[in-house]
Amino acid sequence: MASRGFTDSQIEAFTWVMKTRSATEAAEKMLISQPAVSRLIKQLEERLGFSLFERVNNRLLPTRHGSLFYNEVERVYVGLNHLKQFADKIKDTAAGQLRIVSMPSFATSLLPSAAILLAEQFPELEMSLYSYRSEQIPTDMAAERFDFAITLSAEQDARYQSYFYSLPTAFIVPKHHPLAQKSVITPQDLQGETLIVGEPEERSRATIINRLNELDIKPKKIWTVSLSDIATRLVANGKGISVINAVSALDAEQHWGVVCRPFEEPIESQLQLILPLDKNMDPATQKLVMELKQIIERKIYQCGSQLITDN
């Protein structure tokens, strides 16, 4: 890109010298010689009509004009980088690509199972699947970094579409644990057990702990984990029992040999699916994300039904 007589090479050389304070190091970054970098800087200064650097103790330090010019270069190039990312997104969508992000609790259960079903309907579709912390996802969706998101965050924004669902929780217990013989777990069943729960701010943990305190029921000990996947592995190895979302619980029962049981006092969490605004999606992307949304809605309904039917 040349602009008002500037070349990409001149601006790149200037940027690297600003960052490294050295023409030699800038040359290494650009894979050219040091004299070539000096020549590019000189050409840029001639075009601008003022000096960009002065040499102090064998280092190149920006002049006042150089610093002001750099601030503007940074602003313009950040904007250009955003345009490039946006163009790449358009190109990827046209080629049949979908970027999906999920909070960790669903990244190993709901996300892959839904992606598999979507791929069966669109065999040529390419997908990028990511796992980010729940509180980060709304910001990324507002910035249009992804095409679809799964999160427990309740944060809403006018820059995307929000769909909320009630998701039941369930207990998972070791296969040979006495509680595996029960059809429903009661608060009294937790007396003397090692209870594996999520972080303090999680609703399911707070609800259960408060209820146990009300009934003066004392678990043997409480383990805190940040991921349902960690809880699943601990339960599978007989280290305790845990309460996690029903999607992950039924997935754990299928793949980890644990037993999934509903709680006598239902605890529900609020799942949010985030989609871009309709005006920001081309018809192909809109078709894909709406189909994915329907797949996940069916799985949420099936999980609730399966908990009732199996027990």
TrEMBL record:
GO molecular function per UniProt: DNA-binding transcription factor activity; sequence-specific DNA binding
Gene3D superfamilies xref list: Periplasmic binding protein-like II, Winged helix-like DNA-binding domain superfamily/Winged helix DNA-binding domain
Keywords: DNA-binding, Transcription, Transcription regulation
InterPro entries: LysR_HTH_N (IPR000847), LysR_subst-bd (IPR005119), WH-like_DNA-bd_sf (IPR036388), WH_DNA-bd_sf (IPR036390)
GO biological process, one term: positive regulation of gene expression
Transmembrane regions: none
SUPFAM superfamilies in the record: Periplasmic binding protein-like II, Winged helix' DNA-binding domain
Keyword match Transcription: yes
Domain HTH lysR-type, first and last residues per copy: 10-63
A Pfam family this chain is assigned to: LysR_substrate
Family affiliation: Belongs to the LysR transcriptional regulatory family.
Protein name in the entry: LysR family transcriptional regulator
